[in-house]
From TrEMBL:
Signal peptide: none annotated. Pfam families: Aldedh (PF00171). Its EC number is 1.2.1.3. InterPro entries: Ald_DH/histidinol_DH, Ald_DH_C, Ald_DH_CS_GLU, Ald_DH_N, Aldehyde_DH_dom. The active site is at 257. This is aldehyde dehydrogenase (NAD(+)). Belongs to the aldehyde dehydrogenase family.
C-alpha cells in the first residue's frame, strides 16, 4: 500500500490497538514550521490518563500473543516494518522536517535508515538471545531464561524523532515486549504516521502503539503502575523526574539517555585536517542539536594557531550550508523552534560578555525562521556557562592546553559523560587518554558517532543503562533462573 500520509491529511488521532482513534482528552498540541514559524497543525491529540490506560490495557491483552509467537514470525513482522519504513523514507522524513527543519539528505535519510536498521538488527537477535545454563555437577541444573518484561514504553525527544524509535522499539519488540511510543510534542507527526505501517507490517493489535502528548503524557507513562519499563531519551532534568516517578510507582525499569557537553582533545601530533573535519561536523550536524556533539574542543598549544585558522574556515564554510531544508545543497536547517532559538541566542549573547572571545558566527541568518550561524568561542573561561552547560545548538567552545594531565582533568571536570574524542597519531597516548575519559563513548581520531553493534549511552549524569548491541536486549528483558534438582 502506498504511504498515505502528509502533514495535511494525517489523522490527528492516536494509534491504539492497530486503529487510529480519537483521544479521550480534548487538549491539543500545536506544531510550527521552524523555517518561517508558520502553523503546521494545532489539532494533534495530547493523550491523557484514559488514553494511556487504554493503550496499557490493549498492550496487556496483546502481550501473551506476541511473546509466544514463533520467533521467525515475529522476526518477519519486524523485518517487514523496517522495509516499509525504508520504502516510505522520504514521506516519513518530510513529516519530521515540517516541524524539526532537518534537511532530508543530511539528516532525514540518516535517521530513517537508523530506525530501519535498528529493527533489522534486533530482529536478527530474536532467535539468538538464547539464555544460559550452568553445570549440574553439584546436583542442580541452572537454566537462565531471558524473559520479556511485558508492557514497555519509550519517551523520545524531538532531535532524532524516528531514529530513537528504532533504538527503543526495536529491542523491546524483538524480545517479546509490547511497546507504547510517546513522541515529543515538538515532532509528533512522523511518529503518528507510523501507525499505518505498524498495521501493514502485521503486528498484532496492541503490540506497538503511539500516544502523542507532552510532558504530562510522559509523566502518566513514567508513573503508571502497569508499565514495566520506560526507555527515555531527553534532558537530564526530565530524566531525573522519570527515574523518581518510576521509583515512586512500581519500580519500573528505566533506561536514560540524556544530555552531554562532550570534549574533543586535539594533540600537537594529530592529523590536522582529520581533526578539523570531525570537530566541525560534530557540532553542526542537525544544527548542533545532537546529544553527543563535541561541543568543547581542547587544542594543544603547539598546533593551536593552525587548528584555529582551519576550524574557523571550516565553520565559515558550514555557514554557507545553512538554509531552507527543502533546497538542494542545504545541509544545516534552522533550530527546532522559537524557544530553542531564544535559548541558543541567549547563550551566544551572554557568552560575548566576558565568557570568551567570539571567533566566528554568532548571528542570526535571515529575518524569518530560526536560522543561526555556526558559532565558535575561543579562550573561554572554564567556569563560564558556555563552557559548562549543554547549549544544544551549533556552538562550540575552544581552549588551548599544555599537558595531557591538565587536559584530562578539565575534560572530566563535569557531570556530563556521554562522548569524548582524542586526536593524535600516538597510539599509546590515544589508548591511555581513551581509558581516562569519564564517558560512555570515546572516539580515537573521530568523535560524535555511534554503531548499532556497540553500547550507546552515557556515564555520570548523561545517562543510565545503554542502548544498541546486546545491552539493549538486556535492558528489555529480565533474567529468570530456573533450578532443577537432579538428585530428587
Ligand atoms: P525533554 O527532556 O524536554 O523531553 C524529552 C521527552 O520527555 C519529550 O517527549 C517530552 O514530552 C517528555 N517529557 C517532558 N517532561 C516530562 C515529564 N515530566 N515526565 C515524562 N516525560 C516528560 O528533552 P528534549 O528537549 O526533547 O531533548 C533534548 C535533550 O535530549 C538534550 O538534553 C539532549 O542532549 C537529549 N538527548 C539525549 C540523547 C542521548 O541518547 N543521550 C539523544 C537525543 C537527545
Amino acid at each position: 500500500m502506498a504511504f498515505p500520509w502528509s502533514a495535511k491529511n494525517l489523522p490527528k488521532q492516536i494509534f491504539i490497538n492497530n486503529e487510529y482513534v480519537d483521544s479521550k482528552s480534548s487538549k491539543k498540541l500545536t506544531v510550527h514550521n521552524p523555517t518561517d514559524g508558520s502553523l503546521v497543525a494545532d489539532d494533534i491529540p495530547l493523550s491523557g490518563e484514559q488514553d494511556v490506560d487504554a493503550a496499557v490495557a490493549a498492550a496487556e491483552k496483546a502481550f501473551p500473543v506476541w511473546r509466544k509467537m514463533a520467533p521467525n514470525e515475529r522476526r518477519n513482522i519486524m523485518l517487514k516494518f523496517a522495509q516499509l519504513v525504508e520504502d516510505n523514507a522520504i514521506a516519513v522524513a518530510e513529516l519530521t522536517r515540517v516541524s524539526l527543519g532537518a534537511p532530508y539528505k543530511a539528516f532525514g535519510a540518516f535517521e530513517i535508515g537508523l530506525c530501519a536498521e535498528a529493527f533489522r538488527y534486533n530482529a536478527g537477535w530474536i532467535d539468538k538471545f538464547g539464555g544460559e545454563s550452568w553445570p549440574q555437577e553439584d546436583g542442580f541444573l541452572k537454566i537462565v531464561r531471558n524473559e520479556p518484561l511485558g508492557v514497555t514504553a519509550g519517551i523520545v525527544p524531538w532531535n532524532g524523532p524516528v531514529g530513537t524509535i528504532g533504538l527503543k522499539a526495536g529491542p523491546a519488540l524483538a524480545m517479546g515486549n509490547c511497546f507504547i511510543l510517546k513522541p515529543s510534542e515538538k515532532t509528533p507527526l512522523s511518529s503518528l504516521a507510523l501507525g499505518s505501517l505498524i498495521k501493514e507490517a502485521g503486528f498484532p493489535p496492541g503490540v506497538f502503539q503511539i500516544l502523542s502528548g507532552d510532558g504530562s503524557t510522559g509523566a502518566l507513562i513514567a508513573s503508571h503502575m502497569r508499565i514495566r519499563k520506560v526507555s527515555f531519551t531527553g534532558s537530564i532534568a526530565t530524566g531525573k523526574k522519570i527515574q523518581e516517578m518510576a521509583a515512586k510507582s512500581n519500580l519500573k525499569r528505566v533506561t536514560l539517555e540524556l544530555g552531554g557537553k562532550s570534549p574533543a582533545v586535539v594533540f600537537d601530533d594529530c592529523d590536522l585536517e582529520n581533526a578539523v573535519t570531525w570537530t566541525a561536523n560534530a557540532i553542526t550536524a542537525n544544527t548542533g542539536q545532537v546529544c553527543f556533539a563535541a561541543s568543547r574542543v581542547y587544542v594543544q598549544e603547539g598546533i593551536y594557531d593552525k587548528f584555529i585558522e582551519k576550524y574557523k574556515e571550516a565553520m565559515k564554510a558550514k555557514s554557507k550550508e545553512v538554509g531552507d531544508p527543502e533546497k538542494e545543497g542545504t545541509n544545516i536547517g534552522p533550530l527546532v523552534d522559537e524557544a530553542q532559538f531564544k535559548r541558543v541566542s541567549g547563550f551566544i549573547e551572554r557568552g560575548q560578555k566576558g565568557q570568551g572571545k567570539l571567533l566566528v558566527g554568532g548571528q542570526r541568518i535571515g529575518d524569518k525562521g530560526y536560522y543561526i550561524e555556526p558559532t565558535v568561542f575561543t579562550d573561554v573561561d572554564p567556569n563560564s556557562e558556555i563552557h559548562c552547560q549543554e547549549i544544544f545548538g551549533p556552538v562550540s567552545v575552544v581552549r588551548s592546553f599544555k599537558t595531557e594531565e591538565e587536559i584530562m582533568k578539565l575534560s572530566n571536570d563535569t557531570n556530563f559523560g556521554l562522548m569524548a574524542g582524542v586526536f593524535t597519531q600516538d597510539i599509546n597516548k590515544a589508548l591511555r587518554v581513551a581509558s581516562e575519559f569519564e564517558s560512555g563513548m570515546v572516539g580515537i581520531n573521530c568523535v560524535s558517532l555511534m554503531f548499532m553493534t556497540s553500547p550507546f549511552g552515557g556515564s555520570k549524569e548523561s545517562g543510565l543503562g545503554r542502548e544498541c548491541g546486546i545491552h539493549a536486549l538486556r535492558a528489555f528483558t529480565e533474567p529468570k533462573t530456573i533450578m532443577v534438582n537432579l538428585t530428587y
